[in-house]
Design brief:
The protein has 181 residues and is of the alpha/beta class. The protein has one domain: P-loop containing nucleotide triphosphate hydrolases (Rossmann fold), CATH 3.40.50. The protein is 46% helix and 19% strand. It has 7 helices and 9 strands, in the order βαβββαββαβαβααβα.
């Protein structure tokens, strides 16, 4: 599972990794937020209304779900389990609370925390991305960074190429450990 504050570069690292790695699949999350211009339905997220999301909760269809910045996000349980059963490694991009919840239910899962080089840099990234409510997000970022100690690995995304090399190395290390079991 890959987690970290919004705007830290999780999606960039994951997309690059999945483009090179055919042993892994991306778990597409559900969300109630609006689609951004560069996002693709079914590839980046499943964009659903609140009623559909709540119906999925009631049917126990999520591995985890969370309310993040007034929008709901959830990891579809069936798709993750099917991918794992087929022998694929599943990459999840989920918020910190959700990652810790999944880890408590599945202790064999690995958590990678992507950290910004600084809060200042992260604010600039969010402003560039067109995010609003930067100050409200700052408090959540601080809370999330405080929880990085619960993660198996941390990658500081200061330079995307260096961060990617470290990210890829971590996944290779995890795979080696799995093969030795």
């Amino acid at each position: 599972m890959v987690s970290g504050p919004s705007g830290v570069g999780k999606s960039t690292l994951i997309r690059r990794f999945l483009a090179e790695d055919k042993k892994s699949v991306f778990s597409v999350s559900y969300t109630t937020r609006q689609k951004r211009p560069n996002e693709v339905e079914g590839k980046d997220y499943y964009f659903v209304d609140v009623d559909t999301f709540n119906d999925t909760i009631n049917k126990n269809g999520f591995l985890e779900w969370e309310n993040v910045y007034t929008y709901l996000y959830g990891t579809p349980k069936k798709e993750v389990l099917e991918a794992l059963e087929s022998g694929k490694d599943v990459v999840l991009d989920i918020d910190v609370k959700g990652a810790l919840r999944v880890k408590s239910q599945h202790p064999d899962a690995f958590l990678i925390f992507i950290q910004p080089p600084s809060l200042y840099e992260l604010k600039n990234r969010l402003l560039f991305r067109g995010e609003k409510e930067i100050e409200a997000r700052s408090k959540r970022v601080e809370e999330e960074v405080e929880k990085k100690g619960y993660f198996d690995y941390t990658v500081i995304n200061d330079n995307v190429d260096e961060a990617y090399r470290e990210f890829k190395h971590i996944i290779e290390k995890i795979r080696e450990a799995k093969w030795q079991e």
